[in-house]
Write a structure and sequence with these properties.
mainly alpha; Arc Repressor Mutant, subunit A; Tetracycline Repressor, domain 2
């Protein structure tokens, strides 16, 4: 196996084990065994744990073809079409989580364990999203398109909707018995909710048509007591 292929194999097995057992419950020996290599080979490709964790983040970005948030926002923000900006970002995020629930579990493990990967992900991705999207919101506020509200609150509300929706679908309600909705519709509706809350001039608000979805109520069990 070529060096690059072996490195990718070690990464995939490490991510799989981390997502299932957490970081404290996974050893280098187990990663080596799952990859079919020696521990020495693991350390040959990843001299330090930080190098391995950085490689995991890089691998996930490259494997999914996800652009850096700054590059994506610069591309879609030039037309100042607020609906297009937020809906595009929402759909990209929802599709990412749908295609890779393993990575979402891995991030949850890292956060709950206070692991180094959680801090790295926060600094490399989350902070950039807050900064970039927050700056876009501030610019639109200066132009009178959005009402005065803390841009970071807006970013928190927007990303909160996306993350909670993904967690429901990936962890708690995989069959979508409570709310069955496509990612396209979810992105549109979440964007609509956000823009109706922050747009300064509602008559010029490009929120589109609202779509109603039926919430599936759990079936009541009948029986005698």
């Amino acid at each position: 196996m070529a060096g690059g292929e072996r490195r990718s194999q070690i990464l995939r097995e490490a991510m799989n084990l981390f997502s299932k057992h957490g970081f404290r419950g996974t050893t280098t020996k187990e990663i080596a065994q799952a990859s079919g290599v020696s521990e020495a080979m693991v350390f040959r490709h990843f001299a330090t744990k930080e190098e391995l964790y950085n490689a995991i983040l890089d691998y996930k970005v490259c494997a999914t073809g996800t652009e850096h948030p700054e590059e994506l926002l610069r591309e879609i923000a030039s037309g100042k079409d607020d609906r297009f900006v937020f809906e595009t970002l929402a759909l990209r995020a929802l599709e990412f989580h749908k295609s890779d629930p393993e990575f979402q579990r891995l991030l949850l493990h890292s956060a709950l364990e206070g692991h180094q990967l959680a801090r790295m992900f926060w600094e490399r991705m989350v902070l950039h999203i807050y900064e970039i999207l927050g700056n876009y919101i501030r610019e639109r506020q200066k132009e009178g398109a959005f009402r005065e509200v803390d841009p970071l609150v807006v970013v928190r509300a927007f990303t909160g909707m996306l993350i909670h929706h993904s967690l429901n679908n990936n962890l708690w309600d995989k069959e979508q018995t409570l709310l069955k909705i496509s990612n396209e519709d979810a992105a549109r509706e979440f964007t609509d909710i956000l823009l109706r809350g922050i747009t300064a001039n509602k008559s010029n608000d490009n929120t589109g048509k609202s779509v109603r979805f039926k919430i599936q109520q759990p079936e009541k069990k009948s029986g005698k007591r």
